[in-house]
Structures are given as structure tokens and as C-alpha cells.
């Protein structure tokens, strides 16, 4: 008897058998002369009955029922000397032909197919074996169990070079999406603490972050998920083994546990869901001293000064939250950021991270990592070489995190033994549109697929739909188009559909229209931070009724925003439909309902923090303390406190202010703090009489000279003077072509003449905030200035 997996080929003495029917052709008794025809016919009849009886036994028996199977064979060959051949308790044809096919194919399953037979479904140990206990594999296994299939999951984590391993659930749960998002949240809470002071929260104690407290809490949560997955499999009667799966033959897999104990299992079908693992550089010291994302989230010490090697989403996400926790972080980039993503968005992310303290080393790659000092963390010296020349640099860091990509776990699972094709260069598995490999009973899902998205929800969706097609008669296939995703960098990036580069390549630049705009989240206006950093963009196909084919957003909660729009995009959302949608106010997502500026127009998209009514002037009562310092030819400059940081800026010539302007930020230090160039100023406008007389006094209860406002077309226009209700105060009326951005400023007025009249619009009830005027000698120190608090005008 020859054994190949669970398929047993039994060779027993029997006379030659027909290929198709198994009925003796003629009786052969080599040692005796032939009997007469009558005797031959009688013997043939007896043999035929005996063979049929024996084969009946074989067809009824499970292949593991050896005693009864052997008895059936014995009875079938009782009066013959030629072999009878059976596979999986099935009698197959002419033995010489069978052996020839078997030797050629090395495949008992193929032998049965050649002889017109199909396998007995209950002859396998399992209906389905899933190799890999990640999100996709578990989803497929639990889905199959719903249809009362006998299912096994094999999952085994090979420890990293640093010794890290984890439980059931795969990359996403243990060393990917879940811990990454939680640590990203930890960094956001640090920013929220800073913002909270502007919202009235007062705390004097020093705020510090504790790495060990965070990692312990994160790992405790992940541990609860690991246990929950095991319980779910048990409840659904799915067999789970913590063992490494490797194909050893057709329909047969070897499972090796951590003790080295091996077991063989057979299944009618297999799903490969082994995922990917981080790639190493292949340079001296990389595996000895560097960590990967597989190690970072359970690192038993604070990583300290960190070098992140790579520019993938993993690299930027990790660099972002480490910097947000207060660590010194440097990112070493070989070429571009976020390859495969929209490069406009990628570059904006890089600029934001740079402004928030992340250092970037461009066009360099490490060539050696050495340990300078042991410890937790120790000190590592990194030598890097330029990709654009021969320049070499060195640097010392506490931790080196490699995030240069991931490789599929497909090369060591015996795919060659079952003839499954893989891409030899990448290790990816090519499949058809039903996730089927070139071997009909083997399927694959998740990150290991060639030319498919590497996203956890995609693997889950593909796994469930695959099982529904296999066992529930469904026909729905996984749609790999218009899949939303989010990169959890400090400024989150949500995307769905085509990048701008891909859209231009596919449809032609003349056939797409890109609508875009900056926006300023309301939550960020009170702390007055990060204006004109959040960004919204949609890409429309002009030839298809301006259907939205690309959606991109940079801002807080980008994933939440993107998820909702993704459904609309899958339903064929057009720009017209988007414009006709009523926005929710005040939220970030409403910007997509008011996009009007196209990229090709080149028009300004500066965010103003107010309702975007074009060509209106802004009317504001400002709440500052002023200090006037004689400078330059104008005689006066105004130094503003923190309240005006990050306001939109305009140029004086653009407003025709001329020498009537009192320019903000005459010192270079203050210009830098406002992030303005030398040619850019924020201006307030008063009468020339004020400037000429230098009557900058604050006398008790007296009326003040006329205030001057500037209309961009008419030039200076005199307004009635404002009387101060309190000693030493004056109301200042200010105009700007761009809306002034601050939580302490009032919004636009719909009609310009209302700005210039004595009374404000009846729709706006301003609560004037007071501004003190104080004479200060030339050269006075203005560093002590701070903003006055005040309520927003409404």
C-alpha cells in the first residue's frame, strides 16, 4: 500500500480490470489450461459477483477504516492474481494506466480525476483549513462555520530578531492598526492639554508622559482581544492550533507547534492568509540592534531619541506619535514620502510634521548600525550614505526603527510542493477575481495578493465574500476599487479613489477637474494654531458628468470624514450632487459641500476661519493691548500679542493703504513668530491726521479723533468718531480683504455700506472689546506682551 497524504492507493492481487467499469474482461488462471466456454462463463459470473461485493464494501468505508476496507479488498481479489486499485475507497480503472498517471502527476487527486471520479467530501479531516489567524483569516473561518463546515485555523508567530511575538489576531490587532491608533491618540491628548488652557482649563503641575503606563494599557487591551478571538472560534466550533502550517502535498498540510511536534491534516480547500512581516535592510547591525513596528508597540522602555528609517505610512505614523509624545525624532527618507499615495497630500503631511518638530534627512540610506553603549535604551551609531552622491553622514540615536516595507509570508509554507504560483521577486500570490490561485482548491486573501490593496478591512471583506461563494451559493466578489483608507499621521490623511497623479495618467489632465480648499477646524481657532494646514481636495472626471473619482482630506478625524463619503463615491457621487448637499455646521466635512476653486484656476484657497462669503470685508472689534514704537518713516508700528498668531495676512499695497498703515511686526523675530515674510503684513488703518499729529494719548473720558477705514476701491473714507464709555479706552474698527481669524473676532457683514455707517448691521450684535493705548519710548522691550482674554463676537 502506498500512502500520499490522506489519499491511500491500495494495490491487491486481482485480474486485469477495465478502465471504466472494474468488471473482469476474462478469467485468467496462469497455471492451468483454459476450461471450456461454459466453465469460463461460470467463473466469470462468480468473479464478477465477488468483485462487486468487495468494491461495495470499499465504497462504503472511510479510508481510515482499515480492517473492513482490507476485508472488502480481500473478498474482491479472492479468485484473482492481478491488483485492484482504489483511491479514497474508490475503485479506479486499469492498474497500469493508473500507475502511469500517478507517477507522472504525483497526485492521487489527479489520478481520481483522470479516471472520472471525484473525491469523497467527508474523506478529509476538514472542509476548510485557514493558514493565518489575522483579521482576514479569522473572518473567513468564522464565516465558514456559519454554514456548518468543519474548519481549522493554523496561526503561528515567528519571533522577531528582538524576540517579540504576540497572540491570535494577526498584525492589525497586535502590532498594527490597533496599537498605532491608540498611541496616535496618546499624542493627540498631549496637544489637547496644550489647547485646553485657551479653553479655560488651569493646571500648574508639570505634565509628563509615561511610556510604560501607555504600553501596559495598550497591551492589556490587545490581550483582551486575543482572548476574545479564541473564545469566538471555540463558540463557533472552529478548531484552532497555534502551529506553523506548511503544505507537504496535495490537500495535505503539516502543522508544527512551538515544541516542534508535527501533525498532518487534510482539507478539501485551503485559504492562505499569512500576511506580511517587516523587511530589514540587510546591512551590518540591522537585525542585531534595530527594531521594527513588530517590536515598538510592546517595547519595555521609552525609545528616547529615535531614527525612523523609511517614508511609508508606518514610518510616518510612528514618527508622528513618537514626536507627539515629546521625543526627539528624525526620519531618514530615501526618495519620496508615502509612495503610492497622492504626492500633493504626502508633501503637505511632511511639511506639517516638520513644522511640529520632526526632523527629516532626505536622500540618505543607512549602511551600518553600531552599538556605542548598551542599555534600555542604549546608544547606536548610524552611518548613512547619500543616494545622490558619495556623501556620508553619521548620527547617534537611542533607537533605530526600520519601516522600509513589508514582505509576504509565502516563501516558507510549502507552496512549491503544491505548485502554487508566486511572484518570485515580491513573493506575492497572483489570483483571479475570486481570490483563487492557479491550484483550484487553494485560495488566498489579504496583503499577500499581487496588485491588491494591503488593508485589513479589504482582507476581511474578501475572506467573507469568498466563503459565501464557496458554501452559500453567493456570487458577490470583493471590490478592490474605491476603497477608503486613512494614514494616522499627526495631521490625519483620509483618501478614497484615485490620486491626482493616477487620475491624470488614466484620464488625461484635460479631462479631470481638481477642486480644493484649505479649512480651519473650529476646535483649533481658539488656541489659534495650525491655520491653512488642513486641506480638502476632490478629483472629478469631466467626461463623466464630473463624477468624483478621487477624495482626499487632511485634518482631524480624517478617517471618520472619509468613511461616509466613500459610500457616496461607490454610488457614483458627482460634483453637482456634492454641491447640492447641505453641510453640517460647524464641522470639518462641510468644506466638501462648498468647494468652488479649481486647481487650474490658480485662485487663492487661504482659509479664513469664518463663513466663506467672497468679496466681503471683515468687521472686527479687536481685543489687544497696544504698544506704539517709533520706527522707520511711518513713525509708528504696532506690536500684536499672541491672539493674532496664524491670522491670514495681506499686503499693504494690495489694500492701497499707503502711509496710512500702521504695520504689524516690524521686528524680524515677531514676523517669524507669525510665520510671515518681509513682504507680508497685517495692517490696521487710521486717519492721516492721527499719524501726522502723533496724538496717541489716552485721556480720561475724552472723545477720540475720527477713525479711518479703507475701502479697496474708494480709498480713505472718514467715519464718525467713537466715544469711549470708560476711561482710557477706544474702539478700533478694522478691515481686511481676508477675514481676520480668531475666536475673539466678529464675522463679516453682508453689505459694505453697513461697515461704513454709524450703526452696525442689525443682524450682528457686537460686544466691543476694549483696547488700551499706551505711549512707549523708542526701543522699549515688547517681549512681555500677552493677549487679553475675551469672548467671541456674534
From TrEMBL:
Keyword NADP among UniProt keywords: yes
Domain FAD/NAD(P)-binding: 126-463
Sequence ranges assigned to domain Pyridine nucleotide-disulphide oxidoreductase dimerisation in this UniProt record: 483-594
Chain spans, region Disordered: 774-794
Catalytic activity field: H2O2 + NADPH + H(+) = NADP(+) + 2 H2O; [thioredoxin]-dithiol + NADP(+) = [thioredoxin]-disulfide + NADPH + H(+)
GO molecular function ontology, one term from the record: glutathione-disulfide reductase (NADPH) activity
GO biological process: cell redox homeostasis; cellular response to oxidative stress; glutathione metabolic process
Cofactor(s), by name: FAD
Gene Ontology cellular-component annotations: cytosol; mitochondrion
EC number: 1.11.1.2, 1.8.1.9
Enzyme class: oxidoreductase
Keyword tags: Disulfide bond, FAD, Flavoprotein, NADP, Oxidoreductase, Redox-active center, Selenocysteine
Family membership noted in the UniProt record: Belongs to the class-I pyridine nucleotide-disulfide oxidoreductase family.
PANTHER family, per the entry: GLUTATHIONE REDUCTASE, THIOREDOXIN-DISULFIDE REDUCTASE
Function field: Reduces disulfideprotein thioredoxin (Trx) to its dithiol-containing form. Homodimeric flavoprotein involved in the regulation of cellular redox reactions, growth and differentiation. Contains a selenocysteine residue at the C-terminal active site that is essential for catalysis. Also has reductase activity on hydrogen peroxide (H2O2).
Protein name in the entry: Thioredoxin reductase 1, cytoplasmic
The organism of origin for this protein: Zosterops borbonicus
